[in-house]
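Per reviewer request, we include the raw input and output of the structure prediction for the construct analysed in the revised manuscript.
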Amino acid sequence: MRRLLLIACVLAAPWSVAALPESLPGGQAIPSLAPMLEQVTPSVVNISTYATVQVRNPLLEDPFFRRFFNVPDQERYRRTQSAGSGVVVDAAKGYIVTNNHVVERADEISVTLADGRVLKAELVGTDPRVDLAVLKVPAESLVEIGFADSSSVRVGDFVVAIGNPFGLNQTVTSGIVSALGRSGLGIEGYEDFIQTDASINPGNSGGALVDLDGKLVGINTAILAPAGGNVGIGFAIPSRMVEAIMRQLIEHGEVRRGILGLAVQGLNPELAEAFGVDRRDGVVVVEVEPESAASRAGLRPGDIIVKVRDREIRKVTDFDGQAAVTFVGARVPIEIVRGGRASKVTLDVKDEPLEKVTGERIDNRLVGTVLQNFRNEGDTVEGAGVLVTEVGENSIAWQFGMRPGDIVVACNRRGVRNLEELRENARAGQEQLLLRVYRSGQYGYIVIR
């Protein structure tokens, strides 16, 4: 500590530091981010959440222990608090975008503005698959931030991260875009991250990543921190995805993501040779569901998808990023290569959510089951999941313990809110399906091989 003070004193001595010039030679002003930040930082807010969680003594799980010691079986609760960041994106209506994990399970949310005001926030909707949430606060003298076109961002562009790391409000860090289209991290269901070396730390989640014009490039979401702190590898959700998801949440309170009805895998040299195409990037259609949007558009296994909308498709994550923002009612232009010839098709994603399907449409290991989306009017399973309505007694699922009335709430360690998520998570399992189910008031696991 003494050494630090000595250094500070030396640096502060008037005879030891030459006065900095107020301008560069030729009268040019010294470059500074300050003017831009003065306009942008008021739009970044601090979010505090409060939740009530159940606390149970593991010893009380044993009924013999409770009976022997005459311990009352009483549920105990404690109040928890956490913090994160958010961005005002609509000052006139009071909408704020943040991460889903910042507000997940919160029963009270408050927002602290840059000017010190504290406002109670209403949760408009969440999308756990992309890790986004929209809040609403009273629209009183708010400052919003505009959206940049993240599709035009390039590696090497300068960016600035703004948030509240470790409770240090209005912290600004700068860096560059290190990479685009990062995925395969296992952070979210849909991953198409912008990677940056601008310092992002705990508490920055939900904050803004902006360009030098002060436009929103992305929402800061996660870091790669093997040592527990920032190492210059942070990830942000691109603004185009943020804006699309935000509009869905504001309009519907949820994301009505369309079902394309096809499965793809990355194109490699062996597949390219087998299909007789002279290219090394794109994705190959390996499965098309009958009567789906892909089937109606005429897609077939073996087709190579090279473009969706205006996005070049070079790998599976490019395709998944477009699937994440394909909603019910959309018409999606797709460019394909079939038999060495290029052509275009349009996917018409109609309003036909899967309400009840046979298990094989989800995964071959669920042949003999009938499933449907579950909506609970009470609070038992948080109103989401997939209900098992029928299980054949000769089916594999029956042999491994699945029964009618089970509610699947997770698959392969990822949450399941509907049939679409169950199908996507099932594909992540190589040798088995690890299902977390709710049955007769209790949660348990079923492993199907």
